[in-house]
Each structure stands twice: as C-alpha cells, then as structure tokens.
Request: fold
Amino acid sequence: MLKNLPMQCIDINSPYCPCLLSETNHCTFCSHLKGEATCDCNWSGVCILYEKQWQKNKWDNDNDIDTPLRLEAETKFSRKEQISKDTYLLAMEVNSDFAQSLEKSGSFVFLRRPTDQQFYHFPVGVMKVTGNIIHVVVETIGPKSTRLLADNNNQVLVRGPYYNGIFGQPWIDNIDNGKILLIVGGIGQAPAISIARQLVKKNNNITAIVAPGKIGHIFIAEELTELGVSVQEVASMRQAGMRYLSASLANTQECPELIISAGPDDQHYGIIAAMHTAGVNIPMAATNNTTMCCGEGICGSCQKVTKDNKRVRTCKVQTDFRHFIQE
Amino acid sequence: MIKVVVVGGGWAGCAAALSAAKAGAQVILLERTDLLLGTGLVGGIFRNNGRFTAAEEAIAMGGGDLFVAMDANTKHRGIHFPGHSHASFYDVTTMEPLVKKILQNYGIEIKTRSRVSGVTKYGKKIQHLTFDNEEIVTGDAFVDTTGTTGPMGNCLKYGNGCAMCILRCPTFGPRVSLTAKADVKEVMGKKADGSYGAMSGSCKINKDSLSSELKNQLEKEGMVVIPLPENLKKSGMLGKKACSQYAIADYAENIVLIDTGHAKLMTPFFPLDMLRTIPGLERARYEDPYSGGVGNSIRYLGIAPCDNSLKVESIDNLFCAGEKSGILVGHTEAVVTGLLAGHNAVRYCLDMKYLELPTELASGDFIQFIHKQMATEEGIKLRYTFSGSIYFDRMKDLGLYSAQRGEIIERIRKTGLTDVYNTCLV
Reply:
C-alpha cells in the first residue's frame, strides 16, 4: 500500500469527468486543462484531455440552467427515525441507477426540499444502500438541515452522486486482508457503516472504537458487530477512546495498517497527535467534514489550504488529511 | 564508486549507460516500459548518408558497441533509396534483446517498468529520483534520456491524437521529463506553421499483410518504391513530419517501403482505406503505430536546454541526450549524443573538464550547429540529422561527410579522441 497519496480528483474515470472546471481551464488534474502547453499530470490511467475530446458536446446541449449536472430524484422519506434530540435517520427510495451509484464508501448526496431554493441543499454522507433505498443520518442544527425536516416535511429532492466524502479513499479501496482500526465518533457513525460494509468484502480485520460524541447515542454497534467488526464502545473518545488508540499504536503486534477516522475534525487531529506521540506513521483516512455549497468545485466554499500552500477544492480533490493546515 | 543513473532506455539512454560504464561508473538504467530502445524498436535505418560518418566516428572513439551490434543484426546493407545512399537496416524485431545483453555484459543494472515521476533537488544538484511506487534511487550524476515524444494529451493537442504507438503510454504511464521535474524550463520544437511539435515520420506495416510478390521483393531488395496513384499524392503532409530527410518530393509521389523486419512506410500516417487501393497492399495493416491510418506520435515537446557538453542548464549533475538534447532525428544521432552525455556524467563525478566534441568531427559540429540553430526562430522549425536535409548539406559543404572508414579513423586520431570512450576514467 502506498504511503503517500497523490492529490487526485475523485471524479476521474466517472461519468462526471471532465467537469465544468475543464471548460475554464481550472481542471484540478490535467495540465492542458489548466492552460499549460504540455502534458504534466499525475498519471491515473486515463487522459482527461482525451475524455474532453470525445465528450466535447457534453455541455453544449445542456444550456438550460435547470438541467442537473448529476442525478436528481424527487422522493419521500420512507423512514424518519429520531435517534437523539437533533439527529434523524432518514431513508428514501430513488431509482436503481441512482442507488447503485451510491454504494461505494465516501459517497454523499445533497438534500433539500423540492420546493426550496437551490441554495438550501446540503451534503449528507450515505450510510448504506439497500435495494433502491438510501439511508442517511442528518443532524438538524443548521438552517438548511433544520428546514428540511421542519413542519413534519416528508418531501425531499436528492442530488448525487458525489464521491469525495473520505480523504484517503484509495487506501480504503485498495486494502485487502488488512488490519484496520476504525475510529468513530458522533455523526461519523453513518459513514462508518458504509466504510465497514466495503472493507469486510475484502476480508479485512476491523476493530472499531465507537463513541456517542455530540449526538449522545451509539446506534451502529449492533450493525457493525453483525458485519464481523469487533466493536469497542466508549463513553468518551477524548478519554477512553484515545487511551485505547494509544495502547494499540504502542503495541507493534496490534498496530493497524490503516486507521480510519469517521467523526469530527477534532477527532482526526487527536488521532494524528496520538500517532505523533507514539512515533508511528500509519496511513489515515478521514471523513470530509468541510462545508460545501455546490459540490462541483466551482463555488470554493470547501476550499482548504495544504501545508505546501496549495488550495484544494475538497468536494472533489483527494489528498491525505494530514496535509491540511489545522484550522 | 561513482554512480550514474540514466533515465530512459531508448537508444540514447542505452548509449549513455554504455559510455558511463566504460568510463568506470556503476550504472543503473531505468526504463518506464518493458523494452529497451524506445522508438528505436520501430527504427531500423542507419549508415545512410552522413550517418555513416557519425557511426564510424563513434566507433573510432571507442563507443562502437551498439553500432557493431546493429551491423551484426542487419538484414540489408549498402541500400540506396530515394535521397539516401549506403543505408543499412537493422532488424527491429530482434534488436532489443541483443542490446540488453551487451549492456548487461558491461555490468549495467537495467530496471524496466521503473517509471521515475519525481525529482528531489538540493540547490543545483539532483539528490534522488522517486519512482511511481515511492521507492527512491540515488546517484552522483543523472542522464535525462526521457525523450520528447507524447504522451497522449500532447499528441492530441499538437497532432491527430494518440495513435497507439510503441511508447505505450496508457499501459506504462506517460513519459516524465527529469529536466522539467527539476524545474528547468524546456524548449519545444515547432512546425513550419509555428505550432509546436512534429509528427513521427514513418509507419510500420505488418509484412505478412503485403501481397506475397511485394513481400518477396521487399525481402530480396531491402526496399521497394511504388508510384502513388495520381489521386493519392498529398504533398501537404510533408510539413508535419519529424524526419525532414524524407520530406522530399520522392516521398510525396511514391510509397517507399523499407524492410526493417516490418515493412517501414516512409510517411507519418496514411489512411488505411486509401493505402489498400495500392496494388500489393490490398490487405495491409499497421504494426506501429496501430492507428497509422490516422496519425502518429508527436515529438520535440520538451527539449532540455543544454550546452555542447550536453550538461543541462542550471543543474550541476544532470546531462541529456537524444531528442532531449536538441531537435535531432534518428537513433544514430541518439547514440552519438548518448555516448557523450554518459561520458560527461562520469567526468562530472571526477571533477574533470567536460568533453566537447570538436567541430572537425561531424558529431561535434552537429551538436554545436543544432544548439546555435535552436536559438533562432527559423532554426527551431527545422529538424537535424546526419542523413539528410539542412545538416547533411552542411556536412558536405564543410567536407565533414565521408563514407571512407580509414579517413574517419584518421580524423579521430588527429583530434586525439581515439578510444576516448574506451578509457576508464576512474
């Protein structure tokens, strides 16, 4: 497994590449589509300039501003279960193509009321897909998420698929028969399910430390156990969770090959600090908690700065979370 | 022990590795694909016109191993074809293992499928190179023989797209220029119309796909000239060619086929349906590039600025050769520059004065002339080769052209460079 993750766009080799960024020479990957004279990409197996050549009419026919760039489904909540005070488990049925496109870990969708303005939509990580039903968990704390569930609303507009929900996704995709430590806090429980479901398929040995976090409730322990994950429930990640982590990092027998942090950024930083203290450098995948508005790399709300002063549009671009400057 | 790392296993890289090893260095030769020789895998023509002189100069200077190998693996020699005299054609289908063996006999470590994608510099020196798989390779001096051709994005932007050629970019990953990764701004060759790059000049047809009469004639005589039907003459194609020695009217009015193991067709591309209207070629299909009916690879998109010792500007321990060192065409040219670059890489490590080939020699004048020409707006649109066009004319004008082995050996003796490449410096 590679230790260093090259910066790469998650949409490469998907139907959503080349994207609108290539139209204005802002592609995050292809040097030609950044306006340079010759090739200088971090080769990923496909030539985006070529893709652009073959799909040159992609945007021309879509002049209508209301035509969605990705898939959209107007549907109803088939399940709405309150997990804790502001936390809801939601399920909704979409068509099979849409549902299938969200099966990979790291997938997320944007949700809003169908009758609301576009800017009400907000990103939500997909917890799992069963048949044509997608399951997500929403915390109703901001204006957009609160609005979605206010007045007992049941109508929802789902837009997707988006894929960059986890920094370090290639590590998750490429590990097999590995020893993995999954650290889960609060709302991170939802993406943890999709991560675990993907990892068990490749015969990985997963240990999960799960803390209730801000939402105050652990709701995935049983499901993880059913998947064959060995689950450690802790009351507080900061205390018991980090102690457990430090112990397993110090023990070379137990030390995992890959750490996955599903939870808030503070949790990611806590793990980095623990690795630092233990003097180990293990690949770490981390959920992407950035605020996003458009999801297409255009608006810039998800931009983060790396330690080598590169600006990364995190709705699309993969990199190692540890490269970001701590905010 | 001095360690020289050569990146790019084409003819230039093989020659650089060879001369560095002969000069006493430990040499590692890195190649992105699974075969050495690069575009030389579809080359074949040597000793034609002034290339004879250049080859004999290299042999007299003690760097002849590769030419001797080509001679030994030659199917046809002393061939005359339009515009060219005393040509030899090596067999492209059997050349590579032979060269590999020669290099290995010199103790050169050859690593194929080793694509260098990163360079770490300290000040003006390269410290180490990084492979795709994050392994690193250190060295005292480095030679950039990564070429200037492709990859697909460039072939698309400056040509007719990827023609699926012997470089096999999608499989092994595109070429990465050491020079560019070391933050040196590269030079690009131009076409006559001012746009960048130039198209490779020949396609290879599968010999078994020719009619048996044509195939027999080709194998017997080494080359066949077939007049083009009137409707297929297309002189407009010539300006795009890399190989200006074939950009003459004969090649616009005739199909010229050469037996290099494949049937080498001396044109950058030729639409297959039109090709198949020519008698004897009714069943023709391409060997390289696979889409030879549509286009060919684009070259000269990343030439390293260098001096006449072939040291890359502004990096102390980086040398270059082949297309990387100037707008030159052909593997004789690649070998001649490769020998010099590899040799000078060793001289760098020993703090010796760099070797520059004197202008009394064709190879010395060639390097200096190209570098002078590349500084001019007109010169950057031309291609340079010992075998034709502007530089062969110059060779003849200056009396540098000779097809007499004895005369060339004497010339080398006068410059004091006899067996210079055979001398262990360490």
The first helix of chain A runs from residue 20 to 23. The two ends of chain A are 29 Å apart (CA to CA). Chain A has three domains: 17-67, 71-162, 166-323.
